From TrEMBL:
Stored SUPFAM superfamilies: alpha/beta-Hydrolases
Biological process annotations from GO: proteolysis
Species: Caenorhabditis angaria
Protein name listed in UniProt: Uncharacterized protein
Gene3D superfamilies per record: alpha/beta hydrolase
Family: Belongs to the peptidase S10 family.
Length: 417
């Protein structure tokens, strides 16, 4: 519809292609067994216009003409801002649509940084609601830095977008040069939907989660406390203070590399010792010559990978507390949700983060249901709704596709979640 919201989707990593979201989460079609496509009954294009945006440059089929790419969160945010503004310049019919930023995992850094640029950088953009799923968040530049977002051409980087425009149902790959000049319209950026947050709490709660769920034994847990917390309890210590400590880092790797354990969903049964077979199947499909030809991928562009790891990218470990407080003060609403079987980003991370924010509690944790089906718990704070889905992992639509669809449909349409 002409009034449907415009959603920009980001995958995480950093280095994971947003086309993965298109192929497995919220696109109009789903890739099955790495061989064929079938219609997705829970496609977000049923209630919104969606742009799947690759970030940073060099992820997926995106590339730079001068063989460079953003090497940190700030430069990635710059390119993402330029890409969004350029899209609105090329497709002005969307300039008055409500705009949401959505994504998963490390997109929980990309999106808050981008939204803060929009929120603080232009009086024309009014951010009303945030829908944050589950992953990492960090602080971005201070308001004084964000007031003037650099609009100059930052080089010959090519920004890669995959977009499906509702109505025309048009799927195409578009390559954009960074624009020389951008026009401002009256834009309405109204929400975010992401993955879990707070990287420092992320590492700590992953350790606690693995211990309380019987994944590691008492001896291993004691070694974690000894190597990462010294004389402090794990609740008191800041894991990231000593993240450069090789012994502490190795303890995390021991957990992450446990065979036949899906750390993204500990309830999922792996067919064999390799729990990520889907990645291999997707890579093979996307690199087929006929697929690359249909997508009009230029000759010489590297092979597509689900998650790229062979590039340098500085993550940074700052928190997003002040951004959530700022959003709440300005009556910007947030939706945060987790799966209770996710060891990578445990739901306790969200609970600790919300407790740290000190926002007013409006509704104690209570049973949450969609269409009379109980799916988890819901807690309401001042301008923040917090959901924990039972028997769900890091990728909610793999176990709760209808719920994943419905909470976003409601939120994007300003209905009660």
């Amino acid at each position: 519809m002409s009034t449907d919201p415009l959603v920009f989707w980001f995958n995480g990593g950093p280095g994971c292609s947003s086309l993965t979201g298109f192929l497995y989460l919220n696109g109009p079609v789903l890739l099955k067994d790495g061989k064929f496509m079938e219609e997705n009954p829970y496609s977000w294009t049923k209630f919104s216009n969606v742009v799947w945006l690759e970030s940073p440059v060099s992820v997926g089929f995106s590339y730079s003409k001068i063989n460079t790419h953003p090497d940190d969160n700030i430069s990635a945010a710059r390119d993402n801002y330029l890409a969004v503004m350029r899209f609105l310049e090329i497709f002005p019919k969307f300039k008055n649509h409500d705009i949401f930023l959505a994504g998963g995992s490390y997109a929980g850094i990309f999106i808050p940084m981008l939204s803060s640029r929009i929120l603080e950088g232009s009086n024309d953009i009014k951010l009303k609601n945030l829908a944050e799923a589950t992953e990492y968040f960090r602080n971005i530049q201070k308001a004084s830095e964000a007031l003037q977002f650099p609009l100059e051409d930052s080089g010959d980087n090519i920004l890669y977008m995959t977009h499906l425009l509702l109505g025309k149902c048009e799927f195409r790959i578009t390559y954009f040069h960074n624009p020389d000049n951008l026009s401002y319209w009256s834009r309405n950026c109204v929400g975010l939907a992401i993955g879990s947050f707070s990287l420092s709490l992320n590492i700590k709660t992953s350790f606690i989660f693995s211990y309380t769920h019987g994944i590691i034994d008492e001896e291993t847990y004691r070694k974690i406390i000894k190597n990462c917390c010294y004389e402090k309890t794990i609740e008191e210590c800041d894991i990231l203070d000593d993240w450069a400590n090789t012994a502490c880092h190795q303890m995390y790797n021991i957990i992450a590399e446990i065979k036949a354990l899906d750390i993204y969903d500990i309830n999922r049964e792996c067919e064999n010792l390799n729990c990520n077979k889907t990645f291999e199947l997707t890579n093979n499909y996307m690199n087929r010559e006929d697929v690359r030809e249909i997508l009009k991928i230029p000759k010489g562009v590297k092979k597509w990978t689900t998650c790229q790891t062979d590039f340098k990218f500085s993550r940074g470990f700052l928190e997003m507390d002040q951004d959530f407080r700022k959003a709440s003060r300005e009556n910007v609403k947030s939706l945060l949700f987790y799966g209770d079987a996710d060891m990578v980003c445990p739901f306790t991370m969200g609970q600790l983060m919300l407790d740290r924010l000190g926002l007013k509690l409006l509704q104690d944790s209570s049973v949450y249901a969609i269409n009379e089906t109980i799916i988890g718990q819901k807690t309401v704070y001042e301008n923040i709704e917090f959901l924990v889905f039972k028997n769900a992992g890091h990728i909610l639509p793999s176990t709760h596709p209808e719920a994943f669809f419905e909470i976003h449909r409601r939120f994007f349409n300003f209905e009660n979640v």
